[in-house]
Amino acid sequence: MSKKTLIELIEEWEKEKALLLRGGGEKAIKKQHEAGKLTARERIELLVDEGSFEEIDLWVEHRADRFGMAEKKLPADGVITGFGTIDGRVVFVYSQDFTVMGGSLGEMHARKITKIMDMALKVGAPLIGINDSGGARIQEGIDSLSGYGQIFFRNTQASGVIPQIALILGPCAGGAVYSPALMDFIFMVEGESKMFVTGPQVVKAATGEEISAEDLGGAATHATKSGVAHFITSTEEECFLKVRTLLSYLPSNNVEEPPMKDSSDPWDRDNSPLLKIVSPHPNKPYDMKEVVAELVDRDSFLEVQKDFARNIIIGFSRIGGQVVGVVANQPYHLAGCLDIDAADKASRFIRFCDCFNIPLLTLVDVPGFLPGSNQELGGIIRHGAKMLYAYSEATVPKITVILRKAYGGAYLAMCSRDLGADLVLAWPTAEIAVMGAEGAVDIIFRQEIEKALDSGAEREKLLEQYRQEFYNPYQAAKRGYVDEVIDPRDTRLKIAKALEVFWSKREEGKGKKHGNFPV
Amino acid sequence: MRKFWVRVNGEEYEVEVAEVREEGENQWNIKNVKKIIPTSFPLQVTTTLRAPMPGRVLALNVAKGDKVEAGQVVVILEAMKMENEIIAERGGLVKEIYVEENDTVDSGDPILEIEEER
Question: What pLDDT score does B72 carry?
């Protein structure tokens, strides 16, 4: 046995390491770049604070021997894993290397990912997964499949403990889509990201339908139609910046508070512009986003799923520097009605906020649940129930402001007092009622209207009476369902005060495994 | 065998038809109907604007042949206690109008067609 000097051993290590760091080699890297994509390591460098990334498991190798795999050397087994910081806070990252056998997931590749997932969970730090993979490494058979299973299991264990963020920067197909789906937020890049359980070829073979990969699983599709993607950007660089912005609102784990940020925007700023934004005529639409922008700390609103189910708005923002999760009806779309997609979108967001100690601010202007057979047959009953469940279950501070309409079941679903709202404020323009005048009058006064000499005039008279009596916030305020009727110009300061008071709220969950959420 | 492109309610179909000649009389047998899902944009794109929910057409702001801009309010649909502004998502020429003022429409009913020129 030849004795090597320490220096020689270090040189050998350097040489070996340099080989591994080349990933799939120059040709494959060039191809990746030509496709407009960055490499796995370039992505991590741009995502985390400069120079903060510490890679682990660079030396891991696969141990497959069938189908010619024994001779194949796959640097880092096609995935880069490790930890670094974003704005000085620890994050764990994995980034699939498409230049190494198409980023395919084999046994050891999966083991590298599960290792850092375990670390992230132990430490209580966010997990960020960069997906760019052709899918399972078929040559490794069920070992590869088992790898996915182990990742899914850990995604579920980590859910509600640490924020989990998936970046789709290339293909993500088949079973692979379910890890991102189990995580909290999915980022996609236009023209580059593709997600589907079965791709266009399989769809064509099975059903005869011809559809492009972009239409089936591109960023636009998932941002607007399926609701799978939470954020889309036009470039990878923009995507990394957006992840950074998102993390600035989130605590690192479920026992931390979300980060405060000093705001130059006075907490008691007068909201006079609201009088121009919101029409006092209840049948005139307005853009709720303008209301949100006026209420929260200047430019602090980060909208989530902005192009999906646009009849409801969700997102993170700050008031007086404190993070709040905003849920608001959007009268500009579908009159602000709640429907299947809106309920699905809002309730998942409410649950996320509750997991991570983010108070909820609910802005209400809702005429009801969207009528129609497609809604009923699509299961609006079980989907709408999600909102009731999510709000009732949430123990974070819950502040509700009713701007105009709050009708029937939809009123209850928008974080009403009865679902545990801590403070319900209403504008003088609020209308809180079991249903609209037409419906109510036709039911209550059916006989009176029929008997009247002039049915039309009688109905009109009764409608007016009903409107006078119930199209206001005072019936609800008399019963204490509304805590205070406020001047709209004071809305921001009222919310800020409420957030301060209810900040220390502590509610223990019931001693049960978990409820049976109406999924 | 002849192929036809057919458009029904703004959706396109490719229909294959076989010509059968019997006793001096021409007959057409439909052999195959395939719905065309656009995968790339043709030169002219026609978009059908549909009612997003059941309601009543309160105002029609455009007429056949008008030029509209993307984002323009083309119809006011009274539904769910709201005068909902129905917006042209793309600009172009109003090619067809399926409704009149005061008509009631159901969710998904076509309101008008806009042909976009590229």
Answer: 93
Please check whether residue A26 touches B, CB under 8 A.
Answer: no
| B59 and B79 belong to one structural domain | yes
Whether B32 contacts chain A with CB within 8 A: no
Distances in Å between the Cα of A160 and the Cα atoms of A409, A477, A509 are 28, 36, 14
Alpha helices in chain B (DSSP H): none
> Please, which pLDDT band fits residue A90 given cuts at 50, 70 and 90?
very high
A335 and chain B in contact, CB less than 8 A: yes
Write the DSSP string, A366-430.
E--BPPSHHHHHTTHHHHHHHHHHHHHH--S-EEEEEEEEEEHHHHHHTT-GGGT-SEEEE-TT-
**Phi and psi based region of residue A119 (left: phi greater than 0; alpha: psi -120 to 50; beta: remaining):** alpha
Count the Cβ atoms, other than its own, within 10 Å of residue A508.
6
CATH 3.90.226.10 fits A274-430+472-502, yes or no: yes
- Give Rg (Cα) of chain A: 27
The answer to whether residue A215 neighbours chain B at the CB level (below 8 Å) is yes
**ipTM over 0.90 threshold:** no
Q: Chain A interface, mutation test: which of B33, B36, B58, B82, most A Cβ atoms within 10 Å?
A: B82
pTM of the model: 0.89
Q: What is the mean pLDDT of each run of 10 residues along chain B (118 residues)?
A: 77 78 71 69 76 93 93 93 90 93 92 85
Q: Which fold has domain A7-247?
A: 2-enoyl-CoA Hydratase; Chain A, domain 1 (3.90.226)
CA distance A281 to chain B (A): 9
Instruction: Give me chain A's average pLDDT, please.
Output: 95
Partner-chain residue, chosen from B39, B52, B78, that has the shortest CB–CB distance to A212: B39
pLDDT band at A509 (very low <50, low <70, confident <90, very high): confident
Catalytic positions of A are 174-175, 409-410
